[in-house]
C-alpha cells in the first residue's frame, strides 16, 4: 500500500536529519525516550573520561611553574572547554541518528520514522504499522548506547603519563630568603649611619661598542677599562664613606650636596673584591666582587692556501692569499701584509721585506682580507722563498693590540744542479727511474690473485716475490724519514728508459722512482754521494756492480773481488765518507711531529708484514697489511707539517784588527751554570697546615697569604675566590665550613716539592775492591 503524501514527506524530512515539529509528530513511547537520553549520556561521558587528562595538563604545568592564580584560571577554562565539547558530542546524537540507529534492527522493518510522524498525517496502514512497532519496542526494550571509543585510549594514557611526569618532576629549589645582615641591623638599631640604597653604573670603553648600563647589584662582570660609578645613600649622614679593595687600597667617596648621597668612581683594570666602609667600619658583612674581562688580541687565520708551504712555478700564475681576522669587539679595517723575499742558499741568504696595506671586508668582529701577488714582479727567481704574513690590529684605545697570522711560504724550486767530474765530463745526479707506490703494490697483488689460475707455481711465486721487493723498496724509502739506515739493495734494477713491472724477474726489479700520490718525495742526498760516484768511476771500472745498488743503498759496502780506494789512515776528509753519512742538511726544512712519526712507524710495521707474506708467495695474506699501510700513509699525508723559513745568520760584526792576534784582552770565560731554582714560598703550605688545626688561624698568617695572593694573582686560576674565602674566615673565625672551604682552595696553590736526587746504593764487596783498584792504579 502506498503511503499518503503527508506521511512520505514526514519520513523524508525525518531521514534527512530534521526533527518533526511539535505539530508534526513526536516520541511514541517513554521507553524510547529513555534509551535515547542514555545514548547521549554515554557519548558525553566518553568525551569527559578520555580527554580529561589532557585537559588538566595545562593547569598542572601552570601550578608547577608557580602561577597559583593563573593555574586556577587555566583549570576552569580547561574544564569549561571540555564540558562544551561533551555537550556538542551529545547533541550530535539527534533524531536523525536515532532513526538510523532503530532502522538497524530487522524487526522494525525499516519503518522507525513512523514513530516520529504526526498521527493525524498517517494513513490506516501506516497507523497499523506504527502500532506494531510500538508493541515490539514495549515487548523488547532497545539499548541504543554507543560503544566506548577505545581508540581514544592512547591519548588518555598520554595525558596521564604527562600529568604524572609534571607532578613528580623535581621542583627547582626556591631562592633562600635574604637574611638580615647582623652588622647592618646592629648599626640601624644603634642609630648609626647605615646603607639605605646603593647603585652601580658601568660605562664600557667607547671602542667596545657596548652601551652604559646600571648593574642590578653591587657585583658585576665588566670589560677591562670600564668606568664604574657608585651612588650610595647613607642615613643619617656619616663623616666618611669609602670602598676598601682587597689589595689594600681605599677609595673615598664624595658627599653630594644633599648630604645623604655619596659618589665615587673607579677604572676597572683588574678583578677585585671590595667592602663598603662607613666611618671606617664595614657597612655590612657582605664582600662584593668585580670580575674584569680582558680584551684579547685579534686572531688571524689563513684560509688560502691550506698548506704553509706552497711550491710554485711561473706556470701557476698569480698567488692568492686569503685571511680571516676575528676579535671580541672589532678589528681595524686596515691591515698590513708583510712580504719577505729570501734569496740564496746556505749562509749566503739575503732578505728583502716589503709591506703592503690591505683593506678588509665583512663585519667588524670578523673581517676577511684578500691579496693577489705576482711573485716574479716582486723579484722572485728560481730557488727563492717568498714569505707572507698578515698583521692586523684591533680598535682598542689608546694602544691597539696586534695579531699576526702564521707565515705562508711560497717556494720556487731551484733548477737541477750539475757537478763536474774531471775536466772533460760532467756527472748529473739524476733521480731513480722507477719507484712503486703503496696503491700500485695493492693493485699488482690483486691482479696477481686474479691471474693465479692461469699461472704455474714457479711463475706465481716469482711475481709475488717481485711485488714483495717493491714493498721492501717503498718501506726503505719511508724509513729514511724516521732516520733508519738502508738495508742494502737487490740486484738487477732497470735503467731509466726501461721501467720494469712486477712481472719481471726479481733480478730485474726497480730501485726508486718519482713519487706518486702516496709515495714520499725523494730524500736529500747523503754527504758522501759524490765520493761514491767518484770511487765507482775511478777505482771500480773493472768491477761489475749491480745496476741501481748505489741508488738504493747510500753506504759503501765491501765486495769480495775488489776493495774501494781509500785515503790514508786518519785523514779527516775520509772519516765521514767511510764510516757514516750526514742527516742534517740546510734545505731539509720539514719536521714531523711525534703523532705523525707514530703514524709513519705504524705504516712501516704494516709494510714489513706485507713484504713478508709477498716474499713467501701469499699475496692474499699480504693485502690486509698493505691496505692498513695505505691508510696510515694517507693519514701521514693529511697530518700537519711544520715548514721552517730559511733564516740567515745574524752575527755581530768582527773587528778586523783583532783577528789572528791571539790577544784575549777583555775576554773572559763564561762557564755554563745551572739556573738555581727559586725558593718556594712556604706561606700557602703554612696556612694549609694551620687550617687543619683546632685553634684559631693567626691574623698575621692570613695577612701574609693575602699579600702573597696579590703577587701570584696572574698564576692562579681564580684568585678572587681565594681572597673571598680568606675574608670570610676573618669575619667568621668559628665557621668550620669556611675553614674547610678555604683549606680546599689553598691546597691548589701549594707548590709541589721538587723531586729529590736518589743516592746511589753503596757498592758491595766486589765493587768496592774494583773501586779501590782504580784509585791505587798509577795515573798515566
From TrEMBL:
Ribosomal protein recorded as keyword: no
Compositional bias (Low complexity): 499-519
Biological source species: Xanthomonas campestris pv. campestris (strain ATCC 33913 / DSM 3586 / NCPPB 528 / LMG 568 / P 25)
Protein name per its UniProtKB record: DUF4175 domain-containing protein
Ranges annotated as biased composition (Basic and acidic residues): 525-546, 553-563, 656-668
Transmembrane parts of this sequence: 44-63, 69-90, 150-169
Tagged with keyword Transmembrane helix: yes
Keywords: Membrane, Transmembrane, Transmembrane helix
Amino acid at each position: 500500500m502506498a503511503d499518503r503524501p503527508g506521511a512520505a514527506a514526514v519520513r523524508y524530512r525525518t531521514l534527512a536529519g530534521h526533527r518533526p515539529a511539535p505539530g508534526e509528530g513526536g516520541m511514541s513511547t517513554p521507553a524510547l525516550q529513555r534509551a535515547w537520553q542514555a545514548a547521549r549520556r554515554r557519548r558525553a561521558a566518553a568525551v569527559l573520561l578520555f580527554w580529561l587528562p589532557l585537559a588538566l595538563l595545562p593547569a598542572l604545568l601552570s601550578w608547577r611553574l608557580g602561577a597559583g592564580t593563573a593555574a586556577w584560571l587555566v583549570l576552569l577554562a580547561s574544564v569549561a572547554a571540555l564540558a562544551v565539547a561533551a555537550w556538542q558530542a551529545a547533541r550530535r546524537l539527534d533524531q536523525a541518528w536515532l532513526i538510523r540507529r532503530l532502522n538497524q534492527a530487522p524487526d522494525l522493518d525499516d519503518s522507525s520514522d513512523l514513530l516520529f510522524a504526526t498521527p493525524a498525517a498517517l494513513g490506516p496502514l501506516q497507523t497499523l504499522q506504527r502500532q506494531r512497532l510500538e508493541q515490539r519496542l514495549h515487548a523488547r526494550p532497545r539499548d541504543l548506547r554507543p560503544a566506548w571509543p577505545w581508540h581514544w585510549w592512547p591519548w588518555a594514557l598520554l595525558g596521564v603519563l604527562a600529568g604524572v611526569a609534571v607532578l613528580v618532576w623535581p621542583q627547582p629549589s626556591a631562592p633562600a630568603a635574604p637574611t638580615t645582615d647582623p652588622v647592618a641591623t646592629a648599626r640601624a638599631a644603634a642609630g648609626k649611619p647605615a646603607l639605605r640604597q646603593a647603585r652601580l653604573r658601568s660605562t664600557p670603553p667607547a671602542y667596545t661598542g657596548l652601551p652604559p648600563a646600571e648593574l642590578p647589584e653591587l657585583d658585576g662582570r665588566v670589560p677591562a677599562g670600564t668606568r664604574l660609578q657608585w651612588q650610595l645613600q647613607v642615613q643619617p649622614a656619616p663623616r666618611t664613606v669609602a670602598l676598601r679593595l682587597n689589595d689594600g687600597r681605599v677609595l673615598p667617596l664624595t658627599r653630594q650636596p644633599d648630604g645623604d648621597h655619596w659618589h665615587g668612581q673607579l677604572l676597572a683594570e683588574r678583578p677585585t673584591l671590595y667592602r663598603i666602609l662607613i666611618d671606617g667600619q664595614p657597612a655590612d658583612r657582605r664582600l662584593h666582587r668585580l670580575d674584569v674581562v680582558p680584551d684579547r688580541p685579534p686572531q688571524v687565520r689563513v684560509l688560502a692556501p691550506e698548506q704553509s708551504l706552497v711550491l710554485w712555478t711561473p706556470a701557476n700564475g698569480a698567488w692568492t692569499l686569503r685571511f680571516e681576522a676575528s676579535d671580541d669587539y672589532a678589528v681595524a679595517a686596515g691591515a698590513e701584509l708583510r712580504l719577505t723575499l729570501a734569496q740564496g742558499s746556505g749562509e749566503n741568504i739575503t732578505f728583502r721585506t716589503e709591506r703592503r696595506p690591505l683593506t678588509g671586508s665583512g663585519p667588524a668582529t670578523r673581517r676577511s682580507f684578500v691579496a693577489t701577488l705576482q711573485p716574479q714582479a716582486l723579484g722572485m727567481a728560481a730557488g727563492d722563498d717568498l714569505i707572507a704574513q698578515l698583521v692586523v690590529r684591533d680598535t682598542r684605545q689608546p694602544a691597539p693590540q696586534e695579531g699576526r697570522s702564521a707565515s705562508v711560504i711560497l717556494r720556487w724550486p731551484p733548477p737541477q744542479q750539475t757537478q763536474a767530474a774531471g775536466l772533460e765530463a760532467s756527472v748529473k745526479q739524476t733521480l731513480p727511474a722507477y719507484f712503486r707506490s703503496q696503491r700500485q703494490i695493492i693493485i699488482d697483488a690483486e691482479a696477481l690473485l686474479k691471474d693465479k689460475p692461469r699461472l704455474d707455481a714457479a711463475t706465481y711465486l716469482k711475481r709475488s716475490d717481485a711485488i714483495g721487493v717493491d714493498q721492501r723498496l717503498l718501506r726503505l724509502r719511508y724509513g729514511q724519514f724516521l732516520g733508519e739506515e738502508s738495508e742494502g739493495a737487490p740486484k738487477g734494477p732497470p735503467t731509466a728508459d726501461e721501467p720494469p713491472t712486477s712481472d719481471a724477474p726479481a733480478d730485474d726489479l726497480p730501485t726508486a722512482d718519482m713519487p706518486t700520490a702516496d709515495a714520499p718525495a725523494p730524500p736529500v742526498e747523503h754527504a758522501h754521494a759524490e765520493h761514491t760516484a767518484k770511487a765507482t768511476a775511478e777505482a771500480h771500472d773493472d768491477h761489475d756492480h749491480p745496476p741501481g745498488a748505489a741508488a738504493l743503498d747510500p753506504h759503501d759496502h765491501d765486495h769480495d773481488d775488489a776493495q774501494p780506494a781509500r785515503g790514508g789512515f786518519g785523514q779527516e776528509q775520509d772519516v765521514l765518507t767511510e764510516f757514516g753519512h750526514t742527516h742534517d742538511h740546510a734545505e731539509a726544512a720539514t719536521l714531523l711531529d711525534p703523532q705523525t712519526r707514530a703514524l709513519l712507524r705504524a705504516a712501516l710495521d704494516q709494510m714489513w708484514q706485507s713484504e713478508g707474506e709477498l716474499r713467501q708467495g701469499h699475496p692474499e695474506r699480504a693485502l690486509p697489511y698493505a691496505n692498513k699501510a695505505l691508510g696510515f700513509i694517507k693519514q701521514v699525508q693529511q697530518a700537519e707539517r711544520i715548514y721552517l723559513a730559511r733564516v740567515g745568520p745574524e752575527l755581530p760584526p768582527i773587528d778586523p784588527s783583532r783577528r789572528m792576534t791571539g790577544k784575549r784582552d777583555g775576554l773572559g770565560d763564561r762557564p755554563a751554570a745551572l739556573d738555581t731554582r727559586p725558593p718556594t714560598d712556604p706561606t700557602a703550605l703554612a696556612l694549609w697546615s694551620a687550617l687543619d688545626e683546632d685553634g684559631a688561624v693567626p691574623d698575621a698568617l692570613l695577612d701574609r697569604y693575602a699579600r702573597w695572593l696579590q703577587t701570584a694573582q696572574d698564576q692562579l686560576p681564580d684568585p678572587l675566590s681565594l681572597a673571598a674565602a680568606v675574608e670570610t674566615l676573618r669575619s667568621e673565625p668559628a665557621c668550620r665550613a669556611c675553614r674547610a672551604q678555604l683549606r680546599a682552595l689553598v691546597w691548589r696553590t701549594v707548590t709541589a716539592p721538587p723531586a729529590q736526587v736518589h743516592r746511589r746504593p753503596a757498592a758491595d764487596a766486589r765493587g768496592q775492591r774494583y773501586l779501590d783498584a782504580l784509585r791505587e792504579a798509577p795515573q798515566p
